[in-house]
Amino acid sequence: MLNDIVKAKCALISVYDKTGLLEIARSLNDFSIKIISTGGTAEFLAKNDIPVTSVSDITGFPEILAGRVKTLHPKIHGGILAKRDDENQAKELAEHDIRVIDMVVVNLYPFEQTVAKPGVDLAMVLENIDIGGPCMIRAAAKNFPSVAVVTEPKQYPKIIEELQTHQGGTSYSLREKLAATAFDRTCAYDLAIYKYFAGRQGQAELPDQVILKLNKVQDLRYGENPHQKAAFYAERDATAQTELFGRKLHGKELSFNNILDMHAAVGLVYEFDQPCSVILKHNNPCGVAVDDDISKAFDFALATDPVSAFGGIVAFNQQVTPDVAEKLSNMFLEVIVAPGFTDDALAVLRRKKNLRLIEYPRTLVDSNAIELKKVYGGYLLQNMDRAPHGEEKYSIVTTRQPSKSEWEAMKFGWKVIKWVKSNAVIYVSDKKTLGIGAGQMSRVDSSRLAVQKACDAGISLAGSVVISDAFFPFRDGIDAAAQAGATAIIQPGGSVRDNEVLEAANEHGMAMVFTGIRHFRH
């Protein structure tokens, strides 16, 4: 293979992150590889007795504009980009006294870390946009048949190993791999800059172009089913697993379905400021409740559907206490997720070897997240369903006004219904779910299922409030709700038969509110 092993004679080093720098510089020096460098990097190497030549000595031109221009010079980029097997280019190099550069060791100004700092100003951001670094990286990667490009300190051990194996040389296969990583890095860097400036525009509409750059965090045992392969990928700016789906305190690794269910459970539980407990199974809540006492909230949530809770996920928006932990330890659960656990609670729950305990604070919930779904031929993209719950925009359409407790139940249930698969009809009180009908093909079937679930759990629906994620197309849903004991309904409205539905509610003496907002969840 052409230029399989390239013996390095000259390396350019210019790095912001100096982790491991001495080790690779000493290795280059061991093989008498000339090192040229810039500003702070050159000073660092010289202070540590590594022979180094300043880029300014090579170019015959000083660094200018407070370091903004250092390496943007033909004597640098000519040395990187020259094709070694081209006689004409070799003559040009000799004519202009340009020395070839066989290795480029460059990492970039910390743009991603800079913009992540609270209150960072635009001037600081602009100063942390690297120009010369990406130019050198791309030039070296383009010419990888002759040049090794090193962009991360974690690559240094492999480079040192290759230098030792090939007596100061690098292999073609390694240089090609390094080039791919280099283009990946400059792509991610430019994407981070684009995202920062796009965010400054305050763009309310979805963008005309979406650029995704994802990193594999971990392979999963399988996907939704054992025959499907799966992995978890994160956006480039998520630097640690604790920033992605919480910090695992105990138990087995999270599965594909665990992560999906956790997303829904956490999204729902953090809808509430009052202490809340959510029990979720197959991306649908089995029970939701709030109470001033988190232990009682869990009891109320469990009572909604104790059968379906088997093998589910339990989420809290408050710290898990020992009394709650004792109750949880008597159940078979996949995951318990909360912003924290007391030491005594952890001691109780860790008795179960496989039970996953996840610390997931509210700060990890991204209220501005975008949902992306793959379909044949492309992707569907939408904002997360974060429609306001403000009752000031609701319309009371019946003769009877809702009572105070019915209003509270409506506000509670309207937050819950967003996280129930459509068609969704649920029965609630002012602090807990009573019956949940999810994912049925007709709304009346969802209503019947919710009633049946409540009946199976021994829960009375007398005085309950019905929540529907979309309008009732016929009055039969209202008749069924009244027969079950409901006294009030909140729904979006908007059916061509709204008048028939309204008449049914008035006939039954029910209060009904239209929100004008739909909460489908497919």
Distance between the termini: 54 Å
CATH topology of the largest domain: Rossmann fold
CATH class of the largest domain: Alpha Beta
Low-confidence stretches: none
Over the alpha carbons, how many angstroms does the gyration radius reach? 31 Å
Spatial arrangement of strands, main beta sheet: 10-15-14-13-11-12
Describe the biggest sheet?
6 strands, mixed
Instruction: State which percent range the strand residues make up.
Output: 15-25%
* Overall pLDDT: 91
The CATH homologous superfamily of the largest domain is named Methylglyoxal synthase-like domain
Structural class designation: alpha/beta
Instruction: Based on the coordinates given, report the CATH architecture of the largest domain.
Output: 3-Layer(aba) Sandwich
The share of residues in helices is 25-40%
The backbone outline, from C-alpha atoms, is elongated
Number of helices: 18
Question: How does this model look, in words?
Answer:
The chain has 18 helices and 23 strands. The chain is an alpha/beta fold and 522 residues long. Helices cover 36% and strands 20% of the residues. The longest helix has 29 residues, at 172-200. α1 runs parallel beside α9 and α13 packs parallel to α14 (343-349). The mean pLDDT is 91. It has a six-stranded mixed β-sheet, sandwiched between helices. Strands 18-23-22-21-19-20 form a six-stranded mixed β-sheet, with helices on both faces. Strands 4-3-2-5-6 form a five-stranded parallel β-sheet, sandwiched between helices. It folds into three domains: 5-200, 3-Layer(aba) Sandwich (Rossmann fold); 247-364, AICAR transformylase, duplication domain (Cytidine Deaminase, domain 2, 3-Layer(aba) Sandwich); 391-514, Cytidine Deaminase, domain 2, CATH 3.40.140.20. The radius of gyration is 31 Å and the shape is elongated.
